[in-house]
Specification:
Length: 294
């Protein structure tokens, strides 16, 4: 197994590094002073309540919106991502929640849509061979690459969308709620797929609302709250309660954030909550979520 322990991963240079990244929409501060690192062969879950800024962060990385401030370093270079084409050329692939598949087209056609092999005519055989190779690499359970995407299950459709994003040989893949619409069995299939991506050395950012899914596959989890970092945790050090507290704001203080980022909370006391955190900063989770939407 090629998965590295989180400690070793964190000592290597990250593939993606965001520092001080901010984004406003008019008067709304969607993101403020965001930091995020993701390493090769690492799955980082990005979690947070509605309105926390997850989609905005993804849109900055995928070239949909420019950031107002801060730096993005990718593969060792400071980069400016002006457009989705820029993102893809850099090696950042995003699988958006709507998947953007064409239901009436086959699996092969969807995989190669817009980048058909051979300049003057479609090389059908080669595309089919490559499709199978790609799907095998992902241990994907697709019955045939010549059937319409409409006849596939939700999990299989997610697989096709992920496979398509891999054709550009990205270094970072961003998955927006990959299991949101799926049942138990299909969720397991997609989570296996995320593990294949990690084994293949990709850096993965996975947005999810499902703490079970997050805990099943992530090496680290980055919590956003009201557009700010609210803790980055190693998955093995953090409990579900602590994660939910960070999402809802019950551990909303600088001490907690620092301890979580440096891993200092692992020694002794409750993981993710430093023993020196003042009691008055511990608010009940319920009813503290004044700023988020819905
Ligand atoms: N295009 C936009 N125009 C104006 N406000 C936006 C836009 N996109 C997001 N926002 C606002 O930015 C904040 C963060 O939103 P978003 O990134 O969608 O959060 P999340 O994906 O975590 O639910 C919210 O207050 C949202 O209303
Ligand atoms: Mg969103």
């Amino acid at each position: 197994m090629s998965t590295l322990p989180a400690e070793r991963l964190e000592s290597s240079a990250p593939v993606l590094s965001m520092r001080g990244v901010s984004k406003h929409f008019g008067a709304v501060a969607a993101l403020t002073d965001i930091e995020l690192d993701v390493h090769a062969g690492e799955v980082v879950a990005l979690v947070g309540d509605n309105g926390a800024g997850k989609s905005t962060l993804v849109k900055i990385l995928s070239g949909v919106h420019p950031q107002d401030a801060g730096t993005v370093t990718f593969d060792g270079k400071d980069v400016t991502i002006h457009s989705p084409v820029d993102a893809i050329n850099l090696g950042i692939a995003t699988v958006f929640q709507d998947l953007a598949l064409c239901d009436n087209l086959t699996v092969v056609d969807n995989l190669f849509l817009g980048r058909e092999l051979a300049p003057w005519r479609l090389n059908e055989v080669e595309m089919e061979v490559q499709s199978w190779k790609l799907l095998r690499q992902l241990s994907a359970k697709i019955p045939s690459v010549r059937i319409a995407v409409a006849s596939l299950s939700g999990g299989q459709r997610q697989t096709v969308a992920i496979a398509r994003s891999l054709l550009g040989s990205p270094k970072l893949i961003i998955l927006d709620e990959p299991t949101a619409a799926l049942g138990v069995e299909q969720t397991a299939e997609v989570l296996n797929l995320v593990e294949r991506l990690r084994e293949n050395g990709l850096a993965v950012i996975m947005i999810s609302h499902n703490m079970q899914d997050v805990q099943a596959v992530s090496d680290r989890v980055a919590v956003l709250r009201l557009g700010r970092n609210n803790g980055t945790f190693r998955m093995k050090d953090v409990s579900t309660d602590d994660l939910i507290a960070a999402i809802t704001g019950a551990t909303d203080n600088v001490v907690t954030q620092r301890a979580a980022q440096t891993g200092a909370a692992g020694a002794g006391g409750k993981p993710g909550v430093p023993p020196e955190a003042p009691a008055e900063d511990r608010q009940p989770a319920a009813g503290t979520d004044e700023g988020s939407e819905q």
